[in-house]
Every structure is written in structure tokens, then in C-alpha cells.
Design brief:
Radius of gyration: 17 Å
Strand content: 35-45%
Strand order of the largest sheet: 4-3-5-6
Largest sheet: 4 strands, antiparallel
Number of strands: 7
Helix content: 10-25%
Order of helices and strands: EEEHEHEEE
Number of domains: 1
Oligomer: single chain
Mean pLDDT: 92
Structural class: alpha+beta
Length: about 100
């Protein structure tokens, strides 16, 4: 089973059953750092009120009727960015997916 994601810039990405996908989401920056003073942490939270968190990897599985689409759309709906675990240097924007084809 294969799903192809088409992006707004004309590029595409093929995903296959058992591929590992990780997601990146945005959250409030409430982190405490042992190596930073309270003042430095306050400045850090002011400059970066939001931070990102990486989740996964999630192994893609195939739905009997809909193929990979249910799990792929779940990842797209919950994460601003995602990447294939075998290529962590390339992050894809979930908001730029314009079409999904499953075959």
C-alpha cells in the first residue's frame, strides 16, 4: 500500500506501510533549565513564548478499506511539521499538503 502526498509547491512524498513518521507540534514554553538563572529563563520565555516538541516515531499501518489515509491524515491534523524517520533532516509542513492519493 502506498500513499502519495502532494504539496502546494508541486513536490510530492511517497509513504508506504511500515514507514516511520515523526511529528513536530507547537506548545507553550514552560521549560525549566538547570543551567539558566531565573532571569535568563524569563528572558528565554519572553523571546520564545512557544516552543516545539517532537513526537514519534509512528509506524504507518494500512486500514482494510482506506489504506494509509486514516493514519496519515491523523498525523497531518495533529502536527504542524512531520518527517520520515529515515530522513530527519527534511521536515514537511502539514499545512502545505493539497492532495493525498492512496493506491
Amino acid at each position: 500500500m502506498k500513499t502519495t502526498l502532494f504539496f502546494s509547491d508541486g513536490s510530492s512524498l511517497e509513504l508506504f506501510e511500515n514507514d516511520l513518521i515523526s511529528g513536530v507540534f507547537i506548545r507553550d514554553n514552560n521549560d525549566k533549565y538547570a543551567d539558566m538563572s531565573e532571569k535568563e529563563q524569563e528572558i528565554n520565555r519572553y523571546n520564545f513564548p512557544m516552543t516545539t516538541k517532537y513526537n514519534g516515531p509512528f509506524e504507518l499501518w494500512s486500514h482494510a478499506k482506506f489504506g494509509l489515509a486514516p493514519q496519515v491524515t491523523e498525523i497531518l491534523a495533529n502536527y504542524f511539521f512531520f518527517y520520515k524517520s529515515d530522513d530527519p533532516d527534511t521536515l514537511y509542513s502539514s499545512n502545505n499538503v493539497v492532495r493525498i492519493e492512496t493506491k
